[in-house]
## 1
Amino acid sequence: MIVIDTGNHIAALAAKMAKPHVIAAYPITPQTTIVERLAQYVENGEMDAEFIRVESEHSAMAACIGAASVGARTFTATSSHGLLLMHEMLHWAGLARLPIVMVNVNRALGPGWNIWSDLNDSLSQRDTGWIQFYASSVQEAYDNIIQAYKIAENEEVMLPAMICYDGFILSHTSMPAEIPEQHEVDKFLPEYKPAWKMDVEKPATHGNIVPPEYYIQIRYDMHLAMERAKKIIQEVGEEFGRKFGREYGLIHEYRCDDADYVMVTMSSIAAEGRVAVDRLREKGEKVGLVNLRTFRPFPREMLKYDKMIVIDRDISPGLGGVVYNEIRGNGSEVYGFMAGLGGMDVSYKDIERMYELAKQGKEGLYPLEVK
Amino acid sequence: MMVAIKDLPLDEKILKGHAACPGCPITIALRIALKALGEKTMLVIPASCSAVVQALYPKTAFNVPTLNIAFEASAAAASGVSSALKALEKEDVLPVVWAGDGGSYDIGLQALSGALERGTDFIYVCYNNQMYSNTGIQRSGATPYGAWTTTTWKGKEEHQKELAEIVMAHHIPYVATATIAYPTDLYEKMKKAKEMKGPRYIEILAPCPPGWRFDMSKTVEMSRLAVETGAWVLYEMVDGKMEFTGYSKRLLAGKKRKPIKDWLKMQGRFRHLTEEDIEEIKKEIDAKWDYYMKIYGGNEDGK
């Protein structure tokens, strides 16, 4: 069935169809309409879940950790400062190896207050042990949420997963999305069987003091799980493709086959980028685009193009574009642009312009400081 | 009829080999508490001495499922445990937070208040040793006036706040105080709390030998004298109805409190106090009891 609705409402629908036992969430712009809709679902009886209306995002994540520790499937959603307030608990969820699924609606950080899209909120959670998906359409947001549960809960992975998409550009824009039937989702995503849980029949202590010789193993095992997640993300994406007709992997290549230049980006800029690629191709330019679906695990080994143009909607002060710097040094010729910070519009025309500038050997902060 | 100490269950949920200091009141209190709460209990423990007392991974001295969580997050995590138990139809299992005063009075206060306001079905226990013991004796919101700590070298200049009274303002079904010198009182209160629903709060005074600077053999004495001098008060509030218990009930009925000096002089943390400081503490305790007398004195239960 095709549903036309906003990214947030479609995300709430995906969460409902994934059947979490417990939701704990706190409102923040532009995530708010997700939790409003979920509260309605629960109150109307359309959704059989416990909804904890917590007093902060820190508590939202702590509550999800508590619930997941007992073996419940959980969901939460946040944005920007809410995500940053969770930061401590994001690490906790990762190290506790709890497959919590969360939507983060990307939004800039203050001061000054800015509610528009910017990826620095989620990119700064890089090392928390969360799988990070980025969606370039409302459809991808839906599909990523359903797949995230299956990937996170896989015994080879057991890591939390964050589904990110741009504030307002996707969260509040109505787009058509193909929504499968509930029984199809149930078949794709069976009931959660936790790899560990608290159980009064088998009393165990979780998270007590760990001496270095064990800690190093636990910490490194998170890394191995994230590496294994690459295979699982691929497999689940292929299975999703077979069942629902939309196949996914770690990256999505668009007209890259004979490309001299490959543009690399994520989130809604990737959607604009595909338009830019089509227009440049019409002019005879050999250009393609890679949409990074996951930032963690980072598919570095898949980005083996001779010349790349990376567009970041983020900045790491003292280093530059985050994604650009994660790719740089792999032997390719890489040009980096930081664009669209704080929600500044990045249209296909801007992307065409960045392509032209990169061909002249230029890069930097678009459009203000390109050298 | 109060339970006799000889009638407490023999089953021990605190196993041998825990890592508490000698004379630590935490294991004394938790041992009694778990006798009352039984095996269908899940502990949620924030950063605190109790996180250490469990002993090192992969071992544990706690024979009930225990979830360790970040310092300020125990009440929120317990909310999640409670909701998950409901969703998974395991409502016969009781989530119990076991937190120190730092994790309750200070950094965990927001999460605690939120969980109480939401009507979370759980017991929250604050074992109050009146400072951050685990990090090496720093001042907390529960540290009394004049007490030496490693962040108040000349003695704390402010009085402690009363968390139980803040908790009461949430109008929850059960609020009680206890201390380890009166194990049957503690046991009865835990037992009573266990049978109720909704948020229940119990605060236990826990005299800490290295923190308060007294000999490890004196923990129980220190606890008892706190009650006898009126520095610590035993009561319970059931659905808004206040009742003093044990020795505190006798004090409310008119029995004379022992001089506060007797309690202060046993503790190295008060060694530097001047007569004026002691007078200040005495004034505070007198004011507290005058208030209790006015509000709760003279009722049937108090006599």
## 2
Amino acid sequence: MKLDIGGTETIQTDVETLWRALNDPVVLTRCIPGCKAMTETAPDAYKVDMQLRVAAVGGSFEGEIALSDKQPPNTCRITVSGAGTLGHGSGEAKFAITPLSEGFSQLSYQGVGEVGGLVAGVGQRILGSVSKHLIGRFFTTLRKEFEDGGALAAGAAE
Amino acid sequence: MTADPSTFRFVSSNRRVREDRRFVVGNGHYVADVPLEGMLHVAIVGSQYPAARILGIDASAALAMPGVHYVLTGEELAGAVDQLMNGLDTPNVRRFPLAVGQVRYAGEWVAAVVADTRALAEDASEKVRVSYEPLPYLTKAGEALEPSSPPVHPPHGSNVLLDKTFVWGEVEKHFTESPRHLSFRVTWGRNSTVPIETFGVVASWDPWREMLDVWASIQMPKYPDQIARALRIPANNVRVHQDVDVGGSYGVKRGIKHTVLVAHLARRLGRPVRLLEDRLENMRGGDAHGPERIFDVDVAFNDEGIVKSMKMKALDNAGAYAGRAPFQLGKPIGAIVGPYKIESVQYRAQSVTTNKAVQEAVRGFGQSPTNYAIETAIDKVARACGLDRVEIRRRNFIRADEFPYLIPSGTRYDSGEYHTVVDKVLAHIDYPALQAERDRLRASGLLAGIGIAACLEPSGGNSSFEPLLNEKNQTTTWMDSARINVDGLGFVTVTIHTTSAGQGHETLAATVVAEVLQIDPDLIRIVRPDSLACLPSNTPVGSRMAIMLGGACFHAAQKLKAKLTRIGAFRLGVAADVATYENGAVADPASGRKLDWAELVNIAHRGFHLLPPDTEPGLEATHVMQVPTGDKLPEGGRVQMYPCHSFEFHMVLIALDPVLGKPEIRRYVIGHDCGTVINPHIVKGMTLGGIAHGIGAALLEEFVYDDEGQMLTQSFMDYLLPSSHEVPQVEIVHHCTPSPFTVFGQKGSGESGYLGAPAAISGALNDAVADLGIFFDKLPIRIFAISDAVAAARANPTGKTAV
């Protein structure tokens, strides 16, 4: 089944820091829900291991993430494909970072995904909301990285 | 008919169903209750793609887990077993339990993981890495007819499994002569029966006795033969244990692929192996979906609404392998005109492969979809002629004095009193009052409609559709058997030779034998020997067991009664045809002297010197029953399909809120005639269950695939079953027209209710929305389809909407 994803988030940091964070496997591993490991296999190409539960089924995913059309520190295209016991999925999204008022940046993203296998059948009614929930968790964790005490708070990423 | 209904003592009487006791207290004995020492468990790795080449299977991580014994792939299995039986002459549509080289639907079995426990096997199945190269796929039957469609089985050359046109009678002439014609398309959505007990099988191999023991939740004809053939072992090395309760089947419990897989593993590993599907495995890869069919119908009729001729094209989406799907287009040929005197028929049966799960036999074997198409035609003719829908049926019905009635496709209907059944239903329901109630509901702002369906339940199943669709098949018998033994203490044991899936065969056999021998049914033990000790038998399909097992029990009991009478007459010194048999005793009517049951038993078991000459000792009788009327091969595309034809007449009142669109069944009455009823509780249960199943097919149940070939309704969250909220109280109006072809005049009732309920409910909904210009032409008619169609029609009141 096809999934449309898109949204806009406000993050309390500057454009450059946000860009670096989104290109840092260590940060992403912490923020992507269920992500166990993320290893760089080539420049801008990563292998990820994930553990997820959707509806009545749970399992592990192995996936590949590739970044392309990079225009630092503003836009990037991200391509994801993976397969596991839950099923298989692929997707492509474009994100753009724009500065907001002092100390804030806006990240907007738009993309489509396709999901197949067990997860498509079992979870189809809730996949839309599950994907929103997972994306929400990603940003919640990401924001915490920049908040006081977070790993990326004011210069900690340097 | 050989028994006089006025003398029935146990047949048709209000006696309990003996099986119910153990089921009600939770003491059924199912395949999951078979405990074997050292048993291993299987979990399945299913395909994630509708079509893909299998590039590789890496099971190393799974095999490295403690407690995991084996991972079986299709390559290995295909080298060890023969392909599963293929009923059609399509040798290049090859099917094995596990996919070989290529997957053909999402969910198809790719590998089997064997471990100490099911949970461990499931965990390990997640570690099996299968790499795929996706291939083009298709899901729609219409696409499959295109020569350019991606072939599901490339060696077969196309996606067409079957495309056969029959012409019975002067169709073109009748169409030319008829002043009025109409044509339409309706679609029967892919649904099935989904028993609460999924399929399960246990197999164990003893190499020192060379014996494969099998316990299964099975309802499969020729099951031991099919296992032996696939495994390439002698058939008498396969022992199927029939004394396993089956937790619902309704046709689909045919797990031959499961059995071959498990049997191979048991031999390969030297341990008993069990596969018990979970719900997801059952729904997506259990190969138990039902027909999915597009009907194009043309009818020729006159201004009086008399239907002269019909052309029907049925295009069925078989899924990825042939299975039993094509034959489910064949069986309805035996009642292709329903209860009507349609003089000629053209029937084109098309079965195509697509990348969907495989079909299995479902209650009625294709008859309910066909009845839905026929009944839609009759409703449309009524509307075209401005006739009442009951009246048009009366005009077209075969009359009681016209039986036995030969229909154009070669089947002779046994008996029926259709007009009388309708009269009884109308009197019961008060038809004018029902119409007034519908109009009152409409006036109150609801949508409301009356649905009517009249249809037949062909019963006594044989397999005449097989030689009809495949000339290489020359089968003309589909026997069933019974054996009766009276032991040395005079107790009676009857053996029956199939499993049962809740049809009450133990009650049936005991009732029939008791009736003939005039002894208490509760004194009769019913047993099911293993398959090696069985007489030739098939299985409880095709609404056949009241006729076939009932018939076999009747004839065996008659043989036994004749022997008892001979023994008694000899002792009494009178001719056997002079002596009388009554309540187990044999008497000389002239002198009044008699020998009772105990004396007769004693002579047979201990007094060889007292037996008439040339009499075997003991009291035992067997009968192998041929299907009545089913003794000929097809000729010129015509065949006698089933021997008996039960009749049902449904009337249903449905109301719904036009905004919500949720149908509410306000009244459901069925007139039901299955000839002589053997046990009224069983017939009632069948009919109520069949109507509930029909409500599911009409309103709720569908295996939906998305455009990416993924099945979306894999669990009961999405594949909706009728619950007590949707199933109304059903009123049954009985009628009995005995069949002249059966021992008590009985006909089948195993599919009753289901065969007409979808048509009746569709008719009621279409009656409710007809004034809005809406016609629902596809089942199931889901709530959202109703509310969307009503909203669209109200927004655009002049437009005609086909939904």
